[in-house]
């Protein structure tokens, strides 16, 4: 979330008039994240206005439909609000936009094991729901060809050791993918870090920010989540945290034999994916231009995580 598209009070009032809601009395931009413009809006209660900066009108309907279906399946998500005509996708300043109810709660940046377990349960419920939506498909644009294609681009931001580690992991992941692992797949969140969840105490209020959702391995989604929620500062896994989250996940959706036997490769690939994401963001910022991200998270954190996962830690 961030603010790329500036709006006025009148423009907001015109937009909000499409809904059966009280007039907006306050709005403020949210300065966080890197991809879309986000405003908190007060109109009787609090709402979230999301203006899409990277995805176009050909892509956004997928996210709107996904959130609605997950909400209908009792997965804790925010469902886009329909306007007077029942439309949930709108145009704001010639860009796609949606209005969500603002969920009560905040991101657990220092989660406890009860919160990890609650998230593991919700993620498993989401995967079960998505397994029943085979018609919902979206290509993963940040998969093998993406990190292979960006390897040379990020070399200036790596040490000699980092270059070697990146090249080795890309080759290892390529060999693993070429073995065609038969793992359960469907729509995954793809980015379920702590800041993409909201908690009210130890109860999960919602999973948010599905804009990296795509077709992928469910176990990869679990690995992405564990890498963020269960890592120590040195990159190693906190095994009590892993037990809380993975145990709660498997109580709802047990991993099958193939998922378990491929776990090491999966969690290493999850670390590679986000190390490369942050390196590419660093390269984009260095290259400049209107699409350069204003915020770049430390790539070194995922370099440490990958080293630990390759060491079995």
List keywords for this structure.
single chain, 313 residues, alpha+beta, Phosphorylase Kinase, domain 1, Aminoglycoside 3'-phosphotransferase, Chain: A, domain 2, 5-stranded antiparallel β-sheet, two-stranded antiparallel ribbon, 10 helices
In summary, what is this structure?
The chain is of the alpha+beta class and 313 residues long. It contains 10 helices and 9 strands.
Describe the structure.
The chain is α+β, with helices and mostly antiparallel strands. The protein has 2 domains: 9-101, Phosphorylase Kinase, domain 1 (2-Layer Sandwich), CATH 3.30.200; 113-310, Aminoglycoside phosphotransferase (APH), C-terminal lobe (Aminoglycoside 3'-phosphotransferase, Chain: A, domain 2). It is 42% helix and 14% strand. It has a 5-stranded antiparallel β-sheet, with no helix packed on it. Strands 6-9 form a two-stranded antiparallel ribbon. Strands 7-8 form a two-stranded antiparallel ribbon. The protein starts with 8 loop residues before the first helix and ends with a helix.
């Amino acid at each position: 979330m961030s603010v790329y598209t500036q709006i006025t009070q009148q423009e907001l009032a015109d937009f909000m008039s499409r809904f059966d809601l009280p007039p907006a009395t306050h709005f403020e931009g949210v300065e966080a994240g890197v991809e879309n413009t986000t405003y908190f809006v007060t109109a009787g209660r609090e709402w979230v206005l999301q203006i899409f900066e990277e995805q176009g009108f050909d892509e956004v309907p997928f996210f709107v439909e996904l959130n609605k279906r997950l909400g209908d399946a009792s997965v804790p998500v925010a469902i886009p609000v329909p306007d007077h005509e029942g439309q949930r996708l709108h145009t704001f300043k010639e860009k796609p936009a949606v209005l969500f109810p603002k969920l009560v709660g905040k991101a657990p940046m220092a989660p406890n094991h009860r919160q990890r377990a609650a998230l593991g349960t919700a993620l498993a419920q989401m995967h079960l729901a998505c397994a029943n939506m085979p018609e919902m498909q979206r290509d993963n644009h940040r998969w093998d060809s993406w990190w292979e294609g960006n390897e040379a681009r990020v070399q200036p931001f790596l040490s000699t050791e980092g270059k070697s580690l990146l090249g080795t992991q890309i080759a290892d992941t390529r060999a693993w993918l070429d073995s065609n692992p038969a793992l359960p797949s469907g729509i995954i969140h793809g980015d379920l870090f702590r800041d993409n969840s909201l908690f009210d105490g130890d109860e999960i209020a919602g999973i948010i920010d599905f804009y990296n959702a795509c077709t992928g391995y469910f176990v990869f989604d679990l690995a992405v989540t564990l890498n963020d929620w269960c890592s120590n500062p040195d990159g190693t896994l906190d095994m009590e945290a892993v037990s809380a989250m993975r145990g709660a996940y498997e109580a709802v959706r047990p991993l099958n034999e193939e998922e378990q036997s491929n776990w090491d490769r999966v969690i290493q690939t999850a670390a590679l994916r986000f190390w490369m994401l942050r390196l590419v963001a660093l390269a984009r910022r260095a290259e400049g231009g209107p699409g350069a991200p204003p915020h770049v998270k430390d790539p070194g954190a995922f370099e440490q995580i990958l080293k630990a996962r390759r060491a079995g830690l």
